[in-house]
């Protein structure tokens, strides 16, 4: 199956290059390949499957909705109304009243585009500030806004007017924005990930975030937090920004909104920014009723089963299980928040990113029944994004495999 696909599909595929399996079916935190091998799935659809594969109650709700209405363009529908209510109810009370929702095309990248367009429209400014190491998607502007050079080096003339600043250091940005010799005009938006996911699981420091928020507020620049990966409970609160005590102007969300992989993407934004005219950001697939039904049910299950509490407890468990890796030769750092963890590998002699060791650890883990992801500088960070309802037993088994894989392959 893999070989046949190889011949027919474009060479742009990514995951099967490092994880050479063909998927047949999934259940909870497990996935089975076409040859009958079962894996613990700590890639979980790149962080999409917050309730794991095929959560039965969410599947039932999607199936019910399929019998009613599958696609609704941007007409109001009961499913969309319930989804909107459910999403707004997850915001902190101060934001619940003042935020609006805009339904974007089905991907995170589309919602990033919408956020930037909205801020340009509202401010009348053209430039955007983004951070080194960030990732915001593969569409043209989202790619241009991403720090990861590998994603854009073969595309000439990416979108102009993007200014990159160091992540986790506020002074260079402050200087550029406030010093008359600083060099950049006030931007339309500052776009920030609170934990850089693709960039290698790098949490933003609280002081950095506080300063960026202060600066942007003082200068009247909308702060857009890209919570495509960190959102919907991944870091232990519904959105990661809650842990920083800030109020963003725009929140971008997608991946885990439906809990089980029905595509949907939104921006939640301060109603004061709503300067859009009809048709300003449209798209055929903005009315996925199956995703709406799934998202409502996912939130019901997440509340009922205290899934956010589970994220925090399993996160602490992972921190404890991965702690022995810290200080080992070849391991530069173990980092994470909630259920988003990464182990950065470096050559013990040169200190350079240990890309091959990371790739070997990933392959080792796969052979022992665990699917993990890579990211960060030259893909030297081994990453996990478990389902948020993963059990302590599965975490235990997975951590044993991961620690063995890294111990065997690093250095
Ligand atoms: N923003 C962030 C923070 C992401 O992690 C991703 C996907 N990895 C995206 C945007 C793009 O989302 P999508 O792949 O659905 O376009």
Outline of the structure:
The protein is an alpha/beta fold and 411 residues long.
Query: What is the name of the CATH topology of the largest domain?
Result: Aspartate Aminotransferase, domain 2
Gyration radius over CA: 21 Å
Strand content: 15-25%
SS element count, helices: 14
Please give the order of strands in the largest beta sheet: 4-12-11-10-7-5-6
Task: State mean pLDDT (0 to 100 scale).
Answer: 96
Task: Label the overall shape.
Answer: globular
Name the structural class. Answer: alpha/beta
Overall CATH class of the largest domain: Alpha Beta
CATH architecture of the largest domain: 3-Layer(aba) Sandwich
Total DSSP E strands: 17
The CATH fourth-level homologous superfamily of the largest domain: Type I PLP-dependent aspartate aminotransferase-like (Major domain)
Q: What composes the largest sheet?
A: 7 strands, mixed
- Quote the distance from N terminus to C terminus: 35 Å
**Total domains:** 2
Q: What does this entry look like structurally?
A:
- The chain is of the alpha/beta class and 411 residues long.
- The chain has two domains: 57-304, 3-Layer(aba) Sandwich (Aspartate Aminotransferase, domain 2); 317-331 and 347-362 and 375-383 and 391-411, no CATH class.
- It contains 14 helices and 17 strands.
- The strands form four sheets. The chain has a seven-stranded mixed sheet. Strands 1-2-3-15 form a four-stranded mixed sheet.
- α8 (140-144) links the parallel β5 and β6 (162-165).
- α5 (78-89) runs parallel beside α11 (289-304), α9 (170-178) packs parallel to α10 (206-219) and α12 (307-322) packs parallel to α14 (392-409).
- The longest helix has 18 residues, at 392-409.
- The radius of gyration is 21 Å and the shape is globular.
- Bound molecules: 4'-deoxy-4'-aminopyridoxal-5'-phosphate (PMP).
- The site of 4'-deoxy-4'-aminopyridoxal-5'-phosphate has 15 residues, from α7.
């Amino acid at each position: 199956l893999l070989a046949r696909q190889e011949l027919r599909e474009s060479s742009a595929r990514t995951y099967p290059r490092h994880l050479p399996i063909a998927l047949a079916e999934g259940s909870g935190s497990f996935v089975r390949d076409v040859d009958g091998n079962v894996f613990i799935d700590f890639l979980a659809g790149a962080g999409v499957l917050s309730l794991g594969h095929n959560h039965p109650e969410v599947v039932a709700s999607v199936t019910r909705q399929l019998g009613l209405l599958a696609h609704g363009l941007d007409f109001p529908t009961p499913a969309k109304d319930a989804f909107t209510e459910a999403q707004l109810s997850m915001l902190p009370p101060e934001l619940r009243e003042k935020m609006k929702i805009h339904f974007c095309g089905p991907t995170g990248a589309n919602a990033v585009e919408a956020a930037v367009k909205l801020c340009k429209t509202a401010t009348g400014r053209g430039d955007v500030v983004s951070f080194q190491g960030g990732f915001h998607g593969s569409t043209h502007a989202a790619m241009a806004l991403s720090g990861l050079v590998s994603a854009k080096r073969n595309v000439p003339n990416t979108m102009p007017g993007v200014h990159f600043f160091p992540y986790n250091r506020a002074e260079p940005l402050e200087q550029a924005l406030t010093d008359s010799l600083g060099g950049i005009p006030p931007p339309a938006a500052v776009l920030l990930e609170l934990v850089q996911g693709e960039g290698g699981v790098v949490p933003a420091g609280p002081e950095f975030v506080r300063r960026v928020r202060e600066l942007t507020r003082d200068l009247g620049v909308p702060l857009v937090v890209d919570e495509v990966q960190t959102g919907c409970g991944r870091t232990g609160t519904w959105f990661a920004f809650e842990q920083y005590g800030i109020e963003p102007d725009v929140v971008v969300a997608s991946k885990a909104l439906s809990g089980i992989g029905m595509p949907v993407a939104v921006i939640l934004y301060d109603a004061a920014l709503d300067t859009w005219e009809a048709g300003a950001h449209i798209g055929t697939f903005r009315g996925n009723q199956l995703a709406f039904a799934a998202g409502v049910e996912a939130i019901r299950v997440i509340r009922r089963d205290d899934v956010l509490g589970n994220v925090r407890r399993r996160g602490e468990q992972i921190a404890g299980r991965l702690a022995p890796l810290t200080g080992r030769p070849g391991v530069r750092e173990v980092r994470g928040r909630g259920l988003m963890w990464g182990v950065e590998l470096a050559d013990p002699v040169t200190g350079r990113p240990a890309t091959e060791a990371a790739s070997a650890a990933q392959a080792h883990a796969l052979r022992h029944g665990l699917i993990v992801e890579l990211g960060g500088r030259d893909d030297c960070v081994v990453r996990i994004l478990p389902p948020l309802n993963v059990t302590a037993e599965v975490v235990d088994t997975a951590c044993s495999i991961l620690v063995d894989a890294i111990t065997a392959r690093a250095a």
